[in-house]
Amino acid sequence: MPDFPRVERFESATVLLPVINETASLEETVKIILRDARDDIKELLIVVCSRTTAESMAVVDRLQRELGPLVVVHHQTLPFLGGALREGFALARGSHVIMMASDLETDPADVVRLIAEARKDPSAVVGTSRWIRGGEFHGYSPVKLVCNWVFQRFFSLLYATHLTDMTYGYRILPTRLVQAIRWEEVRHPFNLETAVKPLRLGVPVREIPTVWRCRVEGESQNPFFRNLEYFRIGLKTRLASRRSILQTEHTDRC
Ligand SMILES: Nc1nc2c(ncn2[C@@H]2O[C@H](COP(=O)(O)OP(=O)(O)O)[C@@H](O)[C@H]2O)c(=O)[nH]1
Ligand SMILES: [Mg+2]
Question: Which domain holds residue 237?
Fold first, then answer.
């Protein structure tokens, strides 16, 4: 039975910042991360694509000029958010990778808390939850909130886990683990995939509370009707063998 790659200690974090239409939000995100956790950041890996706006690209260029090698800019070739994060996983050089957004919906003040969790438990995946005590939603539509709750309950029952926010893409994960897993999704359901594949491998997955605030700049790339697509990867991974979750070169040696 293949096990999962274990990581002895936290050394540094690669922060993945996918960008489409953020300017001030991206700058604020970077400012807060560096204010709180500069010494623990290996790199800010900004992932852009052909749809990234000229205004956002100007901010990315400026950040690169100001921060030098701390900022790495990658032009994705796989499409969509999952494609951006998957390529970020492959390129990450820190011992751990933090997946988040650059629209300020993933509160950058939590980066330092995620790093503290990784330091305590380097082999674990630690996510953030808006549903546990201390977590909050601000500006989420009531209909979406009910759907989100039902959805989270469904998947926590399916995976027999106490996790409460498996669709939320704000997590710290060991780089060796994410580079060993065979990823499938290219759109937003990738966020769920990064919770359920580690779970199926037996990786400890935990959550800390977070406060979600609706973005004030730009708009989401994930229309509501697409949320049903999360079921595909959610159900498929529940039935998948552990061996099939790892890339073949990892199945025998970890
Ligand atoms: N590079 C890249 N970034 C993306 C893509 N889709 C979304 N993002 C960024 O990823 C973050 C989360 O996406 P968002 O559309 O806000 O998703 P939502 O918050 O789940 O509705 C935002 O900072 C987006 O700009 C993509 O296809 N490529
Ligand atoms: Mg968003």
Answer: 13-251
